[in-house]
UniProtKB/TrEMBL annotation:
<feature type="domain" description="Glycosyltransferase 2-like">
    <location>
        <begin position="137"/>
        <end position="258"/>
    </location>
</feature>
<dbReference type="Pfam" id="PF00535">
    <property type="entry name" value="Glycos_transf_2"/>
</dbReference>
<dbReference type="InterPro" id="IPR029044">
    <property type="entry name" value="Nucleotide-diphossugar_trans"/>
</dbReference>
<keyword id="KW-0808">Transferase</keyword>
<protein>
    <submittedName>
        <fullName>Glycosyltransferase</fullName>
    </submittedName>
</protein>
<dbReference type="InterPro" id="IPR001173">
    <property type="entry name" value="Glyco_trans_2-like"/>
</dbReference>
<dbReference type="GO" id="GO:0016758">
    <property type="term" value="F:hexosyltransferase activity"/>
</dbReference>
Length: 373
């Protein structure tokens, strides 16, 4: 059990912890099927391949998803015994007393408690000013996304930040998507391909398997603005923040995000949003919605007075299109969310009712084109 840098050129292969010894692996170097759900490690709070959580967590964190019907495949670094953690650099009191200023890196749990001391790979060349390396989990949900998926994957694995976990949840694609995923299998932490109940069911599966302190969803046709984004963001701890968000670039234009407008429309975009994992594990996407599940989640966070923080720069390049912005169904679903959640806010409710009517009329007069919601 040791820390390894499998490839210093990619964000997902710089800090890989080999949690399991050779007895767990088959001839192909993958975890044996009969042992996959029997991983136990009290130090890391792993019991039967699940992370022991807190009572308020809505669902458990799993190392692997139970096999669903018609599964087409599963893979990634995790299936080879490599797992990701968050890290903290400390100087113990005893070392300070004897004048030894050398640093120790520790794996830390979700609450930042020290778990195990580790030796960082020498070829990482971490700056001496780096004292925290929180694990960032990026989740891509995809179905038949062969056209742009490779660009999305590259924008994640080419990040300069050292501690990234990448998870891909494929809905059982029938095009070339699975081939692209397998091409990058050694740079993806965990992927699975099987039918699901829609985008929000798939996103919940991603949360189920994410081990990071922060969770972000990057659509299969979107990409981060540049390779420095995560490094520039997470040099800060953001310890008192629930949701960190920024702007998007769409059709060559910057679209500003403002969380204070969530009462009226989807004023932030989930591909340009990072959710504190503690919050993500307490809530989940409502899979009864086909389009507005992310809006419902963010509106719920706003109503519950979660702490939002905007970083006024572009996080993500989004492509034009998608059912979320171009259908009458999206207008109806947004109103459905608002009518259920905002009734006690009478003035807001009344304004939204007027806006709902206006958006429907605008949609019709524009010949079925986007109503900009």
């Amino acid at each position: 059990m040791k820390m390894e840098c499998l490839n210093k050129n990619y964000s997902t292969t710089k800090l890989c912890y080999k949690l399991l010894d050779g007895s767990f692996l088959d001839m192909d170097g993958k975890i044996k099927a009969e042992l996959k759900f029997k991983i136990n490690n009290p130090k890391f709070k792993i019991q039967n391949s699940k992370l022991i959580g807190k009572p308020e967590d809505k669902f458990e964190t799993m190392l692997f998803l139970p096999e669903g019907e018609e599964r087409k495949g599963e893979g990634g670094l995790r299936t080879k015994g490599y797992f990701k953690h968050s890290y903290k650099k400390v100087v113990s009191d005893k070392r300070q007393e004897i004048g030894d200023k050398s640093d120790e890196w520790w794996i830390v749990d979700r609450d930042d408690n020290l778990v195990k001391k580790v030796e960082m790979p020498e070829n990482l060349n971490l700056p001496s000013t780096t004292y925290h390396l929180p694990l960032i989990s990026i989740i891509t949900v995809v179905y038949n996304g062969e056209k742009y998926l490779e660009e999305t994957i590259k924008s994640v694995i080419n990040q300069t930040y050292h501690n990234v976990e990448y998870i891909i949840i494929d809905g059982g694609s029938t095009d070339g998507t699975l081939g692209i995923i397998k091409k990058y299998e050694n740079y993806i932490d965990y992927w699975v391909s099987e039918p699901d109940e829609g985008i929000y069911d798939a996103m919940n599966k991603g949360i189920l398997t994410a081990r990071g302190k922060w969770i972000a969803f990057l659509n299969s046709d979107d990409k981060f603005i540049n390779c420095y984004l995560l490094n520039n963001l997470f040099i800060y701890l953001f310890s008192d923040v629930d949701i960190l968000y920024g702007n998007i670039l769409k059709n060559g234009k910057i679209k500003k995000a403002y969380h204070n407008f969530l009462y009226f429309y989807m004023s932030i975009k989930h591909p340009a949003t990072f959710i504190n994992a503690k919050l993500a594990r307490k809530i989940k996407f409502d899979k009864s919605y086909k389009i507005a599940g992310d809006y419902k989640l963010f509106l719920e966070c706003k109503i519950k007075k979660c702490k939002f923080k905007k970083v006024n720069c572009v996080f993500t390049i989004m492509r034009e299109g998608g059912v979320s912005s171009n259908s009458l169904d999206s207008i109806k679903e947004v109103w459905n969310v608002q009518s259920k959640m905002l009734k006690k806010y009478r003035i807001v409710f009344f304004i939204n009712k007027i806006l709902f009517i206006f958006r429907k009329v605008k949609f019709v007069f524009k010949g079925g084109k986007s109503a900009n919601i």
